[in-house]
Design goal:
The chain contains four helices and twelve strands; from the N terminus they run ββαββαβαββββαβββ. The chain is an alpha+beta fold and about 190 residues long.
Length: about 190
């Protein structure tokens, strides 16, 4: 699959190529049992931004590169090797057994969410009861950091820039991230 990556102003940034599984051919109950992913609702984003403004918090953003590729698969899944890849690598194999999730798999979002939750918990965050896309780091009953997840994008809010930077560093030990710095644009909303 080939895709053109655009920035928030619609300008070309780069071309992307990725291997995508044909998830539409998966059979519920046979190839997967459940599917879901972390997508913050627009209303939750609005509440998060309002709370950030009210508490006068700094707002940063990161993007996890290849997020869906992070999750280990629970099921045994095989994928047919495309002719182009078989020729390029001189492979006579007809199928690959997948150990990690791929884009297109029905369970890829669930596996990414599970992997991310493990990392966030390890970093001391708790998931908000009202919304499972919001993680909060508490210290002495006060909010230190809030992180809102939208698939592979994270909005990070906190009082202290060094804490935000430390979180990004800890996150980069677990995932390859693109640090987007101060948030300027998210889901069609321009941040000032």
């Amino acid at each position: 699959m080939f895709k053109e990556k655009l920035d928030s102003y619609g300008k070309h940034v780069k071309f992307k190529a990725r291997i995508v599984a044909q998830g539409f051919s998966q059979v519920p109950g046979l190839d997967f049992t459940e599917m879901f992913l972390s997508v913050a609702r627009f209303m939750m984003l609005q509440i998060f931004l309002a709370l950030t403004a009210f508490l006068n918090l700094e707002l940063h953003q990161v993007d996890v590169v290849g997020a869906y590729l992070q999750g280990d698969l629970d099921e045994e899944i095989y994928m047919k090797v495309s002719d182009g890849l078989a020729k390029k690598y001189g492979s006579d194999q007809k199928f690959w057994r997948l150990r990690k999730a791929l884009y297109g798999l029905k369970q890829a979002g669930r596996q990414w969410k599970k992997c991310l939750h493990q990392v966030m918990t390890k970093l001391g965050f708790t998931r908000a009861m009202a919304n499972d896309c919001l993680y909060i780091l508490w210290k002495h009953g006060k909010i230190v950091l809030m992180v809102l997840i939208y698939i592979d994008d994270m909005a990070i809010a906190g009082k202290e820039i060094p804490r935000i930077i430390l979180f990004k560093q800890n996150l980069s030990k677990n995932f390859k991230i693109m640090d987007l710095g101060e948030m300027k644009f998210i889901l069609g909303i321009q941040i000032t």
